[in-house]
Write a structure and sequence with these properties.
With 367 residues, the protein is an alpha/beta fold. The chain is built from nine helices and 17 strands. The longest helix has 20 residues, at 322-341. The radius of gyration is 20 Å and the shape is globular. Bound molecules: nicotinamide-adenine-dinucleotide. Pfam families: GFO_IDH_MocA (PF01408), GFO_IDH_MocA_C3 (PF22725).
């Protein structure tokens, strides 16, 4: 099988799992080069994962050998690097969120379309075994007609473990932009695009104290809302209630539940690739675990990139695509704008539900 050459820009915290999986898990990708403004990080990553080239970002974007650029910089760098990659005629896959502003998200999707290139965006957890099995259960009518859903992500932020946590409290951060993409991408894959959003958002603490190394004791000024609650109406009919928060120490709320006319489906944590999946049928006595039918139950970050690589030859539409990410970006903004305006936000973007994966594929093969 042909291996598509991938260049990774940004060799920080999340990059290791991409480097590992795109080098060893997926049959159709290889990591050919990496770049980081802190060159030692790129050199250490190249050494650890056997990546042949350490280049500057500009060299990597300009290299005729690279077919897909994977942009793993912090949110503030997403737009510029994606745009530059597209202008260098590269397919590009970026960590979430697609960009900071709606204008930039729209510009990137338009540019990719005009140039006939693929723009992909994390998360790709919705392509994992757990969420794909849930997708099949819903598509096969197992839960009946979806009526409603809940999605809850509450914790106390990332300053207790991330070495450079400032970006989580700047524009493009906050619980909605950081963790919302997992929940919203999963919901859109399961239920289709969203029509209307109603949100309320607040900033409970103006400053956060870092308790991780090496910046222990430093404070961060919080620039974005850190508790975001609201309601979503899907075009297909269901209504979902959602909370994302970095202001809560702990909670017993479930991650995602889908309520169907024939029973309740408990969906696995959308920041993971596996199960468990639980279902309780109408009139049933208790929840029972449903076996996971699909492959990629282990940490398969990068499956969205491998899917793009497969689509270079098949001509299919890649699943973790820019239209989906741009719709998710608009939903996230809508929670905040609805809160500010105290009005419902009617969405202007939409997207197709990404094609489901077939059950029982071999690990590392996407189609
Ligand atoms: N850390 C996680 O657990 C995690 C999980 C999922 C997704 N993400 C997402 O991944 C992205 C990166 O997060 P992270 O935690 O790895 O951040 P990080 O700060 O640890 O790493 C980002 C890296 O990008 C480099 N960089 C910034 N601008 C650059 C440029 N112009 N050219 C080259 N390198 C540049 C930085 O030097 C840094 O090494 C974010 O969008 C985040 O939301 C992170």
């Amino acid at each position: 099988m042909k291996k598509v050459k991938v260049g990774i820009v940004g060799c920080g915290n999340i990059s290791g799992i991409y480097m590992q999986n795109l080098s060893t898990m997926f049959a159709n990708t290889e990591v050919f080069a990496c770049a980081d403004t802190v060159r030692e990080r790129a050199e250490a990553a190249a050494e650890k994962y056997g990546i042949p080239h350490v280049w500057t970002t500009e060299e990597l974007l300009a290299s005729p050998e690279i077919e897909i650029v994977v942009n793993l910089t912090t949110p503030i760098g997403h737009y510029e690097i994606c745009k530059s990659a597209l202008l260098h005629d590269k397919h590009v896959y970026v960590e979430k969120p697609l960009s900071l502003s709606l204008e930039h998200g729209e510009e990137l999707t338009r540019l990719a379309r005009e140039k006939g290139l693929m723009l992909g965006c994390a998360p790709d957890t919705f392509l994992g075994a757990g969420l794909q099995t849930c997708r099949k259960l819903i598509d096969d009518g197992f839960i009946g007609d979806p009526v409603a859903a809940t999605a809850f992500m509450l914790n106390h932020g990332h300053e207790g473990w991330h070495p450079d946590p400032e970006f989580y409290y700047q524009e493009g951060g906050g619980p909605m932009f950081d963790m919302g993409p997992y929940y919203l991408t999963a919901l859109v894959s399961l239920l289709g695009p969203v029509k209307t959003v109603c949100g309320m958002a607040k900033k409970s603490f103006p400053q956060r104290t870092i308790t991780s190394a090496p910046k222990f004791g430093q404070t961060i000024d919080v620039e974005v809302p850190t508790h975001v609650a609201g309601t979503l109406e899907f075009i297909s009919g269901p209504v979902a209630t959602m909370i994302t928060s970095f202001d809560v120490w702990d909670s017993t709320l479930p991650r995602i539940e889908i309520y169907g006319s024939r029973g309740t489906l408990i969906v696995p944590d959308p920041n993971t690739f596996g199960g468990p999946i639980l279902f309780k049928p109408a009139g049933g006595e208790s929840f029972a675990e449903i076996p996971v039918l699909h492959s990629h139950a282990m940490n398969s970050r990068g499956i969205g990139v491998a899917d793009m690589a497969a689509c270079i030859t098949s001509g299919n539409i890649h699943r973790a695509n820019g239209e989906l990410a741009n719709h998710v970006l608009e939903i996230m903004h809508a929670f905040h704008t609805s809160s500010e305006s105290k009005r419902y936000a009617e969405l202007v973007t939409s997207c197709e539900r990404p094609r489901p994966l077939a059950p029982g594929l071999i690990q590392g093969i996407v189609d």
